[in-house]
C-alpha cells in the first residue's frame, strides 16, 4: 500500500513540475502603449481565431489579438497598417508566440510635433469577466 501511495505522490509532483514552466511563460504582463499598426491578418484556426494585428512594442513586433471575426464585423472594428493606436491589454504566450490579448484599442493620430495622441474612437473588447463576445 505504501508503494502505491508513493508512486501516486511522485506522479503528482512530476505533473506539477511539468506544468510550472507553462504557467511561468504565461506571465500576464499588463500592456498600455501607444504604437503604430505594422500589419493586419485574419487567423482561421486555433484558439485565437479572428482579427490580429502586428505592432512594435518595446522594440519587438508583437501579435495583437483583437477579436473573433463575427465580433469584428458586427461592430465594424477596423485597424489598418500605418494606423496609430493606444492598446491596453495583457501580454501572454500562445504556443511559442508572444501575443497581446487586447482589452481596448483606441484609434487616433499622433501629432509628431507635440507628441500628443489625439483619440478618435475606443473599442472595448474585454472586461474583468473576460471577452465581450
Structural notes for this entry:
- Mean pLDDT is 83; it is low at 6-26.
- A hairpin with a 2-residue loop joins β7 and β8.
- The protein is built from two helices and eight strands, in the order αβββαβββββ.
- The longest helix has 24 residues, at 2-25.
- It has 133 residues and is α+β, with helices and mostly antiparallel strands.
- 23% of the residues lie in helices and 53% in strands.
- The chain has a single domain, classed as OB fold (Dihydrolipoamide Acetyltransferase, E2P).
- The strands form two sheets. The protein has a five-stranded mixed beta barrel with strand order 1-2-3-5-4. Strands 7-8 form a two-stranded antiparallel sheet.
- The termini are far apart.
List strands and helices in order, with pairings.
Blueprint: H1 2-25, E1 29-43, E2 50-57, E3 60-67, H2 69-74, E4 84-94, E5 97-111, E6 116-124, E7 126-127, E8 130-131
Kindly provide the radius of gyration, computed on alpha-carbon positions and rounded to a whole number of angstroms: 19 Å
Summed up, the domain count is: 1
> How many E strands?
8
Average pLDDT, rounded to a whole number, is 83
Helix content: 10-25%
The main sheet comes to: 5 strands, mixed, barrel
* N-to-C order of helices and strands: HEEEHEEEEE
| DSSP summary: helix tally | 2
Largest beta sheet: strand ordering: 1-2-3-5-4
Structural class computed from helices and strand pairing: alpha+beta
CATH superfamily: Nucleic acid-binding proteins
Oligomerization state: single chain
Q: Which geometry do the CA atoms define?
A: globular
CATH structural class = Mainly Beta
- What fold name stands as the CATH topology? OB fold (Dihydrolipoamide Acetyltransferase, E2P)
Gap between N and C termini: 51 Å
Outline the low-pLDDT stretches. 6-26
Percent of residues in beta strands? over 45%
CATH architecture: Beta Barrel
Amino acid at each position: 500500500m505504501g508503494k502505491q501511495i508513493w508512486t501516486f505522490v511522485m506522479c503528482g509532483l512530476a505533473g506539477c513540475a511539468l506544468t510550472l514552466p507553462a504557467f511561468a511563460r504565461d506571465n500576464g504582463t499588463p500592456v498600455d502603449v501607444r504604437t503604430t499598426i505594422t500589419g493586419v491578418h485574419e487567423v482561421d484556426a486555433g484558439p485565437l481565431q479572428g482579427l490580429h494585428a502586428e505592432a512594435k512594442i518595446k522594440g519587438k513586433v508583437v501579435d495583437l489579438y483583437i477579436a473573433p471575426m463575427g465580433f469584428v464585423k458586427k461592430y465594424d472594428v477596423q485597424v489598418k497598417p500605418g494606423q496609430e493606436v493606444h492598446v491596453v491589454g495583457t501580454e501572454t504566450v500562445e504556443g511559442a508566440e508572444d501575443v497581446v490579448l487586447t482589452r481596448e484599442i483606441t484609434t487616433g493620430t499622433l501629432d509628431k510635433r507635440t507628441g500628443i495622441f489625439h483619440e478618435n474612437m475606443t473599442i472595448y473588447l474585454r472586461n474583468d469577466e473576460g471577452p465581450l463576445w
